[in-house]
Design a protein that fits this description.
The chain has 3 domains: 147 residues, Glutamine synthetase, N-terminal domain (Ubiquitin-like (UB roll), Roll); 394 residues, Glutamine synthetase/guanido kinase, catalytic domain (Creatine Kinase, Chain A, domain 2, 2-Layer Sandwich); 132 residues, Four Helix Bundle (Hemerythrin (Met), subunit A). The protein contains 28 helices and 17 strands. Strands 9, 10, 11, 12, 13, 14, 15, 16 and 17 form a 9-stranded mixed beta sheet that branches. Strands 1, 2, 5, 6, 7 and 8 form a 6-stranded mixed beta sheet that branches. A two-stranded antiparallel ribbon has the order 3-4. A hairpin with a 4-residue loop joins strand 16 and strand 17. Helix 15 crosses helix 19. The longest helix is centred in the last third of the chain and has 56 residues. Bound molecules: adenosine-5'-diphosphate and magnesium ion. This is Glutamine synthetase catalytic region. Belongs to the glutamine synthetase family. GO terms for molecular function: glutamine synthetase activity. InterPro entries: Gln-synt_C, Gln_synt_N, Gln_synth/guanido_kin_cat_dom, Gln_synth_cat_dom, Gln_synth_gly_rich_site, GS_Type-3, GSIII_N.
Length: 728
């Protein structure tokens, strides 16, 4: 009998509910653990406050003297909050966050002790960077890495540690993290969008990209999770026959949240609120034991930090409730996987959402400008945007006939489509007074009204306009949002710069009025970016064919998707927008490829353990049990035993066949892995893992799942889907 599985099931059923009784209003707790403006007013000198605000708004540098003052203020606050340590909190290219804690506590040469924290420690730290992926950057430059304070994301206290959000760069200035390129992209889009927004409102001096992510995840009992070697080591189940019931009854979606999970959510939310993460929505998702959490949107850099912090906090709080959160994009076969929709827009410092239609024709022209430029940007760089969400785990969703396809397209709905159709008919050059009036009254003027009824939504679209924002849906549940946000904001920045140049040329050289020039350029963009617009079923075979005709990329796997990163178009883009140098882009491509290889390699190794140490021994044990029965029958009934043991003999043969198959497949897969490991070229190695190793996984799984069905329940060692997904 499988001790681990049954102990885990027993434990999971005897859990006591950890009841959380929340006291006090959330608005009073919001941001209490954050060094926000309120705390700054209280703890910073006037000069320090002014400098930090300037740094946040315009990126101005903070000199050492002021940094000392800021550090003093932050320290005083942190100590009143009971913090004992501080850390630079950063996002190395591993995809998660990293931290090294140092105590405030220090001993002076005369033996006295005190709490110390100066400007130096606030602004810069040198974690030993040698064990973080650098994609060759460090070898090339013999450089160490250092972290540097990002004043645009406020310091916070978590678990008695003051966390200072930082970027992580090499001494020669190359970004070794995901935050530095994001900050550069956000600054590029700020500059480009501000210049264009000034056409419509001279008072705009800053544009922030906004991000509202929606985090999907699974929660299962901790003991059940740890009973499965595949979940522990890969985050997903590599084998497992589906339970008789899955999500077909739609009885989980938006249903009553199970009370154990609800208590976990309550505690999690209170923790988030204290950390300034504005969590707002919680609900059951489609698959059993799948849930979603969404906050109010924020400035993109802050939103990215908050999502990363959230994933950390979720892990910790879940553990307290004896639960385990699965962030993997596809932890279970046969039911939905998890994503992280990225809702994105641009907001001015005058309080306007640039993707929200307004009350006047001029405001709507502004809306159309940003709306159409975004469409054009995605059309030009669709393949690059796809590459930003590529990973071994997300491959199980994209291109696998589940929540958005790997083909990028944009859904804008029928009403906005007809607005664009009308704009396509705008005359070339100067517009007649009649045409202008017609545009104002009947096309541009009508947008807010039509959007109000524009309720049609297309869940299969990877990039959908949803009323006042675009929603990028292919982002994986585990993905660091800074990757897609870096690409999206960079391509929109580039597009807006090109747009402004073209409009200004028409104004200066062709003597067109500003609105005429804008209409003229938008008309051309509508014409040239048509192929990216698609309102139909993104999962259908017909769309795949049609997309091919339109020359849209359809990169179903990570090694394919990553190729475009180092294309001339991509390198030129990142360089011209000052987001990443060629060295930085190549390093990221290398790191992503390596990560892909390692993930598939680990899964391959886990298969070996599962097959040889768990599945085959269980099958043999049951075979032996059956053999004993058959031999017993033969002993007692002589030649008559055959008809009496017919069922047993059939099962015995089936088991034997699956054992043989699973062994052969596993051994061939192992050899394929060895062959792949011998390849020196990273891209070739990644393709070998993708095309020659990974396909065996499904085949091995097939035989394992057949064995699971044949073998006596008591003997099956791996916790079953029914137990993992339906224990509440
Ligand atoms: P759903 O997509 O689940 O139907 P909504 O469309 O209401 O839900 O909103 C989804 C998310 O969009 C929310 O998390 C919200 O914060 C975010 N959001 C709303 N407006 C914006 C915006 N202007 N910029 C970025 N995100 C936004
Ligand atoms: Mg959504």
């Amino acid at each position: 009998m499988s001790i681990v599985r049954f102990n885990a099931v027993r434990e999971s059923l005897s859990r006591e509910n950890f009841v959380i009784n929340e006291k006090g209003s959330r608005s009073k707790k919001f941001g209490n653990h954050v060094f926000n403006e309120e705390r700054m007013l209280q703890f910073l000198t006037k000069d320090a406050l002014a400098t930090v605000k300037d740094a946040i708004f315009s990126g101005a540098k903070i000199d050492r003297k002021i940094a000392d003052q800021v550090a003093e203020g932050i320290k005083s606050w942190a100590i009143t909050m009971g913090a004992t340590h501080y850390t630079h909190w950063f996002q190395p290219l591993t995809g998660t966050t990293a931290e090294k804690h140092d105590a405030f506590f220090d001993v002076l040469s005369d033996g006295r002790a005190l709490e110390k924290f100066g400007g130096g420690q606030l602004v810069q730290q040198e974690p030993d960077a040698s064990s973080f992926p650098s994609g060759g950057i460090r070898n090339t430059f013999e450089a160490r890495g250092y972290t540097a304070w990002d004043p645009t994301s406020a310091a916070f206290i978590y678990d008695k540690t003051l966390c200072i959000p930082t970027i992580f760069v090499s001494y020669t200035g190359e970004a070794l993290d995901n935050k530095a390129p994001l900050l550069r992209a956000l600054s590029a889009v700020d500059e480009a969008a501000t210049a264009v927004a000034k056409y419509f409102d001279k008072n705009v001096t800053k544009v922030n990209a906004t991000l509202g992510w929606e985090q999907e995840y699974f929660v299962i009992d901790k003991s059940l999770a740890y009973s499965r070697p595949d979940i522990v080591l890969t985050g997903r189940t590599l084998v497992g026959h589906h339970a008789a019931k899955g999500q077909q009854l739609d009885d989980h979606y938006f249903g009553v949240i199970p009370s154990r999970v609800l208590n976990f959510m309550k505690e999690l939310e209170v923790e988030c609120i204290k950390l300034g993460i504005p969590v707002k929505t919680r609900h059951n998702e489609v698959a059993p034991n799948q849930f979603e959490l969404a906050p109010v949107f924020e400035e993109a850099n802050l939103a990215v930090d908050h999502n990363l912090l959230l994933m950390d906090v979720m892990d910790k709080i879940a553990d307290k409730h004896n639960l385990k959160v699965l962030f993997h994009e596809k932890p279970f076969a046969h039911i939905n996987g998890s994503g992280k929709h990225n809702n994105w827009s641009l907001a001015t410092d005058t309080g306007t959402n640039l993707l929200s239609p307004g009350s006047t024709p001029m405001k709507n022209l502004q809306f159309l400008t940003f709306f159409i430029n975004t469409i054009k940007a995605v059309d030009t760089y669709e393949e690059l945007l796809r590459s930003s969400i590529a990973s071994a785990s997300n491959d199980h969703r994209l291109g696998a006939n589940e929540a958005p396809p790997a083909i990028f397209s944009i859904f804008i709905g029928t009403q906005l489509s007809s607005v664009l159709d009308e704009l396509e008919g705008v005359s070339k050059g100067k517009l007649s007074p009649e045409e202008k009036t017609e545009l104002k009254l009947n096309v541009v003027g009508k947008i807010p009204e039509i959007l109000l009824d524009n309720t049609d939504r297309n869940r299969t679209s990877p990039f959908a306009f949803t009323g006042n924002k675009f929603e990028m849906r292919g982002v994986g549940s585990k993905t660091n949002c800074s990757k897609p946000m870096t690409v999206l904001n960079t391509i929109v920045a580039k597009q807006l710069i090109d747009f402004k140049k073209e409009v200004d040329e028409l104004i200066d050289d062709k003597n067109l009025k500003k609105d005429e020039a804008v209409f003229n350029i938008l008309r051309e963009y509508i014409k040239t970016s048509k192929r990216i617009r698609f309102d139909g079923d993104g999962y259908s075979k017909e769309w795949e064919k049609e997309a091919k005709k339109r020359k849209l990329s359809n990169n179903k796997t990570t090694p394919e998707a990553l190729k475009v990163l180092t294309s001339k178009q991509s390198l030129d883009l990142f360089k011209s927008m000052n987001v990443m140098s060629e060295v930085e882009v190549s390093a990221r491509q290398e790191i992503e490829l390596e990560s892909y290889i390692m993930h598939v390699q680990i899964e391959g190794r886990v298969f070996n353990e599962l097959v040889y140490s768990h599945i085959v021994p269980a099958a043999l044990a049951y075979q032996n049990k059956l053999l004993k029965t058959v031999l017993g029958l033969k002993e007692i009934y002589g030649n008559n035993y055959k008809s009496m043991a017919a069922a047993q003999l059939t099962i015995l043969e089936q088991i034997a066949e699956h054992i043989n198959e699973i062994k052969t497949k596993t051994d061939t897969m192992t050899q394929a892995r060895r062959d792949a490991n011998n390849l020196k070229d990273l891209s070739k190695k990644a393709f070998a893992y993708c095309d020659s190793v990974k396909p065996f996984f499904d085949e091995i799984r097939y035989h394992s799942d057949k064995l699971e069905q044949l073998i006596e329940n008591e003997l099956w060692p791996l916790t079953k889907y029914r137990e993992l997904l339906f224990t509440k």
